[in-house]
Amino acid sequence: MSKSLVSLSLAAGLVLAAPIAAQAQIVVTQWNFNASTTTPSVGAGAASLVGGTTATFASGAANGGSTDPQGTTGNFGWNLSTFPAATAGNLSAGAQFAVSTLGQSGIVVSWDQRHSNTSSAVVQFQYSTNGTTFTNFGMPFIASAGDTWFNNRTVDLSGVAGVSNNASFAFRIVSSFAPAAGGYVASTTGSSYATTGTWRFDMVTVSAVPEPTTTALLLAGLAAVGLLARRRA
Q1: What is the end-to-end Cα distance of the chain in Å, rounded?
Q2: Most CB within 10 Å of its CB: which of 46, 96, 132, 154?
Q3: DSSP code of 103?
Q4: DSSP one-letter code for 2
């Protein structure tokens, strides 16, 4: 092999190594709900209702719309209702998602969420490493208006022990009492909270980076290719 071909081989290896080293995130599982089902549109996982909520499927393009690239035709979201009474069931009702993170690390969860006028303004994210016991994570998200989408709500779990490489990882998005209010408050100022208020979810996404061992093996393979090229030269 000529020196020029060796140089080209090494250069190609460096080009491939750069994005690997950068550990770009990949989508592990995603729900866009456009098929009017809770089956993920990408990857594998399970979505379920918790705390007595009920659900239908409704437009993901209404009221400004979610980030779903589907546009207006065939764009749906998962529309939850039947939440607890105004002073009951704090942190108990909403949606649950289970996703295996085996072989993945740097887990990040993101979603789009529409609040109706009378829905709970306060949203709490919870995670689980065993699929049954859930822990509050981060500060609550608080809606500033109703009939509005709040897109790209994001939770970074990359520093949480037990979330990566876990077949039993799950998370919940649940309604929370407002701080110091002693109950739920409506998303729109001047409205009254109602159990029939709705939350609508779209583009629920679990992202990750490959496990370090996987990256190391890929880089080792590139190094071997470069060494072999040099020897043949």
Answers
A1: 5
A2: 96
A3: T
A4: -
Tally of structural domains, the chain: 1
CATH number for the domain that contains residue 147: 2.60.120.260
Give pLDDT tens digits for 63-79. Answer: 999 999 999 999 999 99
| Alpha-carbon gap, residue 134 to 172, rounded angstroms | 8
Q: Give alpha helix (H) positions in the chain.
A: 3-22, 212-232
In order, the DSSP letters of 25-40 are -EEEEEE--TTSSSS-
pLDDT for res 24: 86
3-state secondary structure of 141: strand
Q: Is residue 87 part of a domain?
A: yes
With respect to residue 137, please indicate whether it lies within any of the assigned structural domains.
Answer: yes
pTM score above 0.90: no
Q: Which domain holds residue 89?
A: 24-211
φ/ψ bin of 182: left (φ > 0), alpha (ψ from -120 to 50), beta (otherwise): left
Residue 193 forms part of a structural domain:
yes
**Confidence tier at 94 by pLDDT (50, 70, 90):** very high
- Only one residue has tokens 């043949």, namely 232
Tokens of 142: 């608080």
CA pair distance 233, 5, nearest whole angstrom: 9
Residue found under tokens 């009939």: 147
